[in-house]
Amino acid sequence: MPSRILLAFSVLLAMLLTSSDGAAQSRIAGAKSLRCTFPRSSTGTWKKDGSPDATVKPASLVLRFDAIDTETGVAQLRNGSVGSDVTVRLAEGYLHFMQAFRTGPLYTTTVFEAGATGNKFKAVHSRHEYFSTPLPDATSSPEQYYGECEVLR
Length: 153
Known about the structure:
The chain is an alpha+beta fold and 153 residues long. It has helices at 2-20, 22-30, and strands at residues 34-46, 52-69, 74-79, 82-91, 94-100, 106-112, 120-128, 143-151. A hairpin with a 5-residue loop joins strand 5 (94-100) and strand 6. The longest helix has 19 residues, at 2-20.
């Protein structure tokens, strides 16, 4: 008898866990196009003594992901008029986009199922890049952007 109670409790718990965010999961899993806006960022660097430092500031980064296909693992990243293929992975409430450049940098965007409001999902975009001499108007140090992505279709 105790094993039946344990089994019933396990089934009930699984139903509760999957149903509470089931609608958000289906929206994020079925998204074919997202528009992501990031109004805040932080930039990391290292001081002369080698200790890490970071600066938080306003940002205005907009990314658009189109032709999202989680089965093949490919999506199209649009930034203005420029487009490129990126890797996409759907995993347990997270939609990850990854772009590894041949020159070394890695950019990632993660869209979170948790905390979704309507068609909008919390998101973070990270740029793993470092140049010892900063370049004006370019990513020269690690950056992270905070915002949201809206499902367009």
